[in-house]
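TODO from last week: model Aspartic proteinase 39 isoform X2.
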Amino acid sequence: MENLVFEVRSKFGARENRKGSWSSQSSRRSSSLKSIDLPLGGDSWPTGLYFAKIGLGTPSRDFFYVPIDTGSDLLWVNCAGCIRCPSKSDLMKLTQYDSDASSTARPVSCDDSFCSSYFSQTSKCDHSGTGSTNGTIIFGCGSIQTGGLEESVSAVDGIMGFGKSNSSFISQLASQGKVKRSFAHCLDNKNNGGGGGIFAIGEVVSPKVKKTTPMLPKSGHYSVSLTSVEVGDSVLQLSSGEVIVDSGTTLVYLPASVYMSLMNEILATHPELFYRVEDSFTCFHYTDKIYRLDRFPPVTFQFDKSASLTVYPRDYLLQFEGDKWCFGWQSSENIYGGILWILGDMALSNKLVVYDIENQVMGWTNHNCSGGIQVKDEESGANYTVGANNLSWSSSLVTVVSLLVHFLFTH
């Protein structure tokens, strides 16, 4: 049997571009997977990465650290023999998946409908074999690493994609009737608590999210329609836009013109401070004896159907070292062509964020993520409490796992 162990922590940017595909049959000792809770660890800053700890293989000898990423559409891990895959990380001990060491692994054919729908014409999958069968999970096997993921400072073992496409982890389980296409996360950051948090698959019944906003149906991401941005009591002059909500992005990226307007409004509230730009961050020095974080204005994003999301100074002010603080707002000009809006962990932390894919809406509410939430068990109809966790990077092989999902691979 194959063990998948979840415990989550906070990202990076580039995606891997070449993967083999493997299939796995999902089951659970206790009847059904109608609701699942995944413990969280990490923080939005300075780690900038929330991750899950999973175990793969029969027998399950190793554990892998993978970010939970709502902006990615595939579960994948680095595999043995990977070209340019990192061998060490400043964050964790890295592990490569070895299918030969598992008695139940099998590759999925490149002709399988899953591969043909996921990979573009310029991409290739490396393995051949029988296609997936009823009750299977297909994941990617990383064979070539590109982008920034091979750098030791941010290297991880893979990614667990919770995106909208049919290839994502939750979509595969939902298509087999294992779970509902609904999940939520509550990301705790160190400015507000101790880090870590909660990730749950299923319907959250408490705290209740009172207002939701429609997901944009034509977008391949979890995108919503923005109507306005407020900095304190001031409303920025801008046209409505599409905003991507992505737990796999650390900061908040704004169109260049919006970024300049927002920063001018914030900086005008403290003209006595000396600001300087370092790399892409606007920074300043101050001590708690003179200033307080809450003296800076909150920033509120207003969305369709009157849903609003407020980012507080404790969320967007990042402590670099000593009395040096920097703003987490970023212009998308040099990274995303200057037009994209992306709300990353900086804006999503200290809130319960609900993704109701079945009803095509999402919403959020302020919540102490070091506390718990209540999730409905679809099988029994009962509600159960999910507590927060803060997974330690060093906990790897000795961590007591609160969730064990069994995977059966056939080779």
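Done. Confidence is low (pLDDT under 50) at residues 1-20, 23-33, 126-135, 393-411.
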